[in-house]
Design a protein that fits this description.
Elements: H1 7-19, E1 21-24, E2 31-35, E3 42-43, H2 46-52, E4 60-67, E5 73-74, E6 84-87, E7 93-96, E8 114-115, E9 118-136, E10 142-147, E11 154-159, E12 169-184, E13 192-199, E14 205-207, E15 219-224, E16 231-237, E17 244-251, E18 264-265, E19 275-276, E20 282-288, E21 293-298, E22 309-317, E23 326-335
């Protein structure tokens, strides 16, 4: 049975969705900016957009520019930010340059500046509260929809102030999202995107508390963040100063060990009062002579790793501390970029 929705109730529901988003002066969180002027003109790829992102790469899982009802456009309005991301007239992701119609070097009919009207969808590899986008070739408002990627359910929506200049506008949602849809407030409007600003997860942040041995609690800290095609490094400090062994566990979860929920007590292996904070997909061991060491892990150049959680915790030798003869450090977790 269907029940009619009263117009006032519909207005209240719509207003509540719009009220969940505010336009803010700038991003207030860790941010990756994709500046299209740093990319070559021509067809482009998701991988190229990820790599072009600052702060270790853009947290993107997919980019979809779907044909809209708007006509094709020529990028010759609000051109100050330079090159822009578009749907090409052949349907591909593309970077085009801006046309100055007064400049004889760029006649108005050059194919590199033509583009197809579209709606843009960005699937994120991290959950976010903030997002920013610069818009060229359009001077009106933009509809910004924040959605759940797995179900496409609407989380919140807003209409931006008018893009009288191409400079980026920034938005904050009260609820988190991992999909953003950007479209013109007018169904016949077309636009280009010179810049994108994505919230990123912390590169790697410590959490949890280790357990003390005779020389105190070992500490795990960040040296170099997890980036594809780079070496991810952690420092282990405050170990037994006369030397010993260490093990660093690396996992993909901080909630489930595979054998049960986390954190998990290490009492059963002879380390009462110590906790395991991350799953153990694999581990690395080594030796130290002065209470400090460094864990290095080379991440391959594989864009499919971008957005994956990576968590770590160290176990260090501590003779006499307990039956195991070892104590645990704090843990830490981050997102590969």
């Amino acid at each position: 049975m269907r029940f009619p929705i009263h117009a006032a109730a519909l207005t209240t529901l719509t207003s509540s969705l719009f009220a969940q988003v505010i336009e803010i002066p700038s991003m207030t969180v860790d941010t990756s900016t994709v500046n299209m002027s740093g990319l070559p003109v021509g067809n482009t790829t998701l991988s190229a957009l990820i790599t072009a992102g600052s702060n270790g790469g853009a947290p993107l899982n997919a980019v979809t520019l779907a044909q809209s009802t708007a006509q094709n456009g020529l990028y010759n309005t609000n051109t100050q930010l330079g090159r822009a991301l578009v749907r090409s007239t052949t349907g591909s992701l593309a970077i085009i340059h801006a046309v100055d119609i007064l400049d004889p070097q760029y006649p108005a009919n050059i194919p590199e500046s033509l583009y197809a009207g579209c709606n843009a969808t960005f699937d994120l590899s991290v959950r976010a509260n903030e997002f920013g986008v610069a818009i060229g070739d359009w001077t009106g408002g933009m509809i910004i929809e924040f959605r759940e990627r797995t179900t496409n359910a609407l989380v919140a929506s807003t209409v931006s102030s008018n893009y009288t200049q191409p400079n980026a506008k920034f938005f904050r949602s009260q609820l988190t999202f991992d999909r953003v849809v950007v479209r013109c407030a007018s169904p016949d409007g077309n636009f280009v995107i010179p810049q994108l600003h994505f919230q990123t997860a912390p590169a790697w942040a410590p959490f949890g508390v280790g357990c003390a041995g005779p020389d105190g609690i070992p500490v795990l800290s960040l040296v170099a963040p997890p980036r594809i095609n780079n070496t991810f490094s952690l420092a282990i400090s405050n170990m037994t100063p006369t030397g010993g062994a260490w093990v660093v566990a690396t996992g993909a979860s901080v909630t489930d060990s595979g054998l049960g929920p986390l954190p998990a007590s290490l009492d059963v292996i002879g380390a009462p009062g110590c906790l395991l904070f991350c799953s153990v997909e694999f581990y690395t061991f080594g030796f130290h002579s002065n209470g400090t060491a460094q864990f290095d892990f080379a991440l391959p150049n594989n864009p499919q790793l971008v957005g994956q959680l990576i968590a770590n915790q160290a176990l260090t030798s501590a003779p006499g501390a307990n039956a195991l003869g070892a104590v645990a450090s704090n843990a830490g977790a981050g997102v590969i970029r």
